[in-house]
Amino acid sequence: MSELLFTPEQITAIERTRAEVSQLHQLLVRYDLVVWTGGNISGRVPGTELFVIKPSGVDYPELTPESMVVCTLDGRKVAGFSGSQRNPSSDTASHAYVYRHMPDVHGVVHTHSDFATSWAARGEAIPCVLTAQADEFGGEIPVGPLALIGDEQIGRGIVDTLQGHRSRAVLMANHGVFTIGKHAREAVKAAVMVEDVARTAHYARVGGEAHRAAR
Amino acid sequence: MSELLFTPEQITAIERTRAEVSQLHQLLVRYDLVVWTGGNISGRVPGTELFVIKPSGVDYPELTPESMVVCTLDGRKVAGFSGSQRNPSSDTASHAYVYRHMPDVHGVVHTHSDFATSWAARGEAIPCVLTAQADEFGGEIPVGPLALIGDEQIGRGIVDTLQGHRSRAVLMANHGVFTIGKHAREAVKAAVMVEDVARTAHYARVGGEAHRAAR
Amino acid sequence: MSELLFTPEQITAIERTRAEVSQLHQLLVRYDLVVWTGGNISGRVPGTELFVIKPSGVDYPELTPESMVVCTLDGRKVAGFSGSQRNPSSDTASHAYVYRHMPDVHGVVHTHSDFATSWAARGEAIPCVLTAQADEFGGEIPVGPLALIGDEQIGRGIVDTLQGHRSRAVLMANHGVFTIGKHAREAVKAAVMVEDVARTAHYARVGGEAHRAAR
Amino acid sequence: MSELLFTPEQITAIERTRAEVSQLHQLLVRYDLVVWTGGNISGRVPGTELFVIKPSGVDYPELTPESMVVCTLDGRKVAGFSGSQRNPSSDTASHAYVYRHMPDVHGVVHTHSDFATSWAARGEAIPCVLTAQADEFGGEIPVGPLALIGDEQIGRGIVDTLQGHRSRAVLMANHGVFTIGKHAREAVKAAVMVEDVARTAHYARVGGEAHRAAR
């Protein structure tokens, strides 16, 4: 845990990002993408080498701007902010890895949303059968490697898969979904949309097995 | 963007239609037919050559009567109304095409609702296996062509498919659902019902593959 | 529409039943068993030859005790009650048929709930694979005949199927579900439970096709 | 029904447990794990030979701390507490059996949640295809025996299956789910998570039948 010094402008940017990222978590609940304390969102703080992320083990209705944990880009928690007794999400090292290696990414979202995760459980990319998927992701949603939770392995898998890919979402094998965005809200939109296309593509395939040849 | 002149009666009709169409959008949320800013409803303004439609990129809880965009029947936005800084939905040209070619249609709805869109992804009409579908749509729900978003191609596909057809809903291939109605509320009802019958028909088929012969 | 005379006790019983039946409709919404204005509940009025039923074409949030329509056991609406400008549900003749032929039935519920209706669409009884179904329905949920809407044909199908059967629910072929009960609340419980067992039995079969032999 | 004497500290512990267990029931509703009055939660009272459990036949919105029934570890209701006119859940003997035979268990939850119960209906363990399942349950979710409701048979099946097993959840054949925890909240978390992994594993299998070989 490091203690750092900031300009008033940086403090304002940190607090604004904490408020924004805190509120975005409610969209994960509204769109039914998370259960219990699972899932997390982070956002890079403009004009700093920091990002803010959901604390570990806190229930969604209890999340507040003050409970968002401020971290350096190597994934260490920054002391001195209100609510800083909380530990950051166990996925923090992976979020940090993404921010270090993808400078245009300013938001990262992680969920185990049901349908997208069912494709991830098979290690199967979501084929592009919908114009909405083409618009949002540029084509199929790719699969990333099976990686251990807790260190930056997952982050490396995300970067290796999405670097140079048109998709802003990756299905981490046997695990769940990570999405990135130019800002945190865009990453949340990608998390919402990947579940939506995963669900429709699932129904399309399951409902039509017997009729595929006919098309 | 054109500036036009209206009688007081026309202004009243425009504002009434904006209020009605704005409120109907909440039914798309209530029945879980849309995510994020996807989907849209439009309504023809009685006694005018105009219709009103959802603005582009606005989240459902933020929609208000003032945010509904007023358009001419060739799909151009009419200036001078409060909230007119918003652009109309990217599907506006297609809604306009429908209003020009189907004079009895006074409401159009578009969604990517999950089950109906899964039939659309296969390019497969929904067979009529339910009395509710027979009552509401007169038989099967037809499939329309794959068409590009942004110009009136989709509108032409809707008109070509539904002209003379008993169904008020069409599954646009690999895209989603469009419904029409004698007024906007009737088109919304069709959007709700087509998802309901698509879901039941999906379960009926998937659950019974092994048992079909037995019937 | 007939005008009749009642004792004060009968008037009290009528108003109590209207309030109860009106409120029970909200459970159909809470358990996601109905869309738009579909579905209906009726309840026999104790100490009279009457029952009350949902009006036709009214949206669920708008239902009030006063909007419940009072009917004779031959399915005619009784004039003179507040809100009596509404027509009773189009299924009224069938509810009336049930009340005339099954004197112990005091409540009838009709829905097109998704999973139960998907079994009905195949004309296939729900096999008893759950202890909850055995407890609630005594075994499988039977299928009734395909019948036209609007006259008492459906009622006859319900009575013919459930008379002497342990189940309080019947799947009307290609149509939907009807349930009966010793009071309206019991019929609502059966409507909730039949959808629950239909859903679980559906998933059990679909998920296990490849593994059935192993059991 | 027995009348017993307690220290003030014990009374405080009882009331605290009743409040906690009462409130936890709302999570079963929030996560859509129960319908009607089905399902139940119990919690062991620290410093006593007692546990508290949901009353039989009470609707979820009506549950209060006072309605929670206080029981001895042989499953008999303790008289004298407010609300004690209610009978305890019909699963009480089985909860008691678990508390007697598993001293580290302080919470037990029972549901018929849809997807987990569909695996139970097939008598098939949920294979471990997700890192979240490995984290939460240590591997596959086992199946317990088919047992009669009402006496302690179910409790014996739970203990026989989970004793020495890493999973805190068991699928009771053709019945539903039981989960245990070091406290009631942990058992509720297991009930939420088992449905989540059951759902994802279901979709993963159903969606991929045709593609399994390719992996």
What does this structure look like?
4 copies of one chain form a homotetramer. Chain A is α+β, with helices and mostly antiparallel strands and 215 residues long. Chain A has a single domain, classed as Class II aldolase/adducin N-terminal domain (L-fuculose-1-phosphate Aldolase), CATH 3.40.225. Chain A contains 6 helices and 7 strands. Chain A has helices at residues 8-30, 92-101, 114-122, 131-137, 153-162, 184-208, and strands at 40-44, 50-53, 69-72, 107-111, 143-144, 169-172, 176-181. The first copy, chain A, has a 7-stranded mixed beta sheet, with helices on both faces. In chain A, a hairpin with a 3-residue loop joins strand 6 and strand 7. In chain A, helix 2 (92-101) runs parallel beside helix 5 and helix 3 (114-122) packs across helix 6 (184-208). Chain A binds chain B through residues 31, 129-132, 135, 189, 192-193, 196, 199-204, 206-212, 214-215, and chain B through 35-36, 38, 112, 114-115, 117-119, 121-124, 149, 174-176, 202, 205-206, 209. Chains A, B, C, D: Keywords: Isomerase, Metal-binding, Zinc. Chains A, B, C, D: Its cofactor is Zn(2+). Chains A, B, C, D: It holds the Pfam family Aldolase_II. Chains A, B, C, D: GO terms for molecular function: aldehyde-lyase activity; L-ribulose-phosphate 4-epimerase activity; metal ion binding.
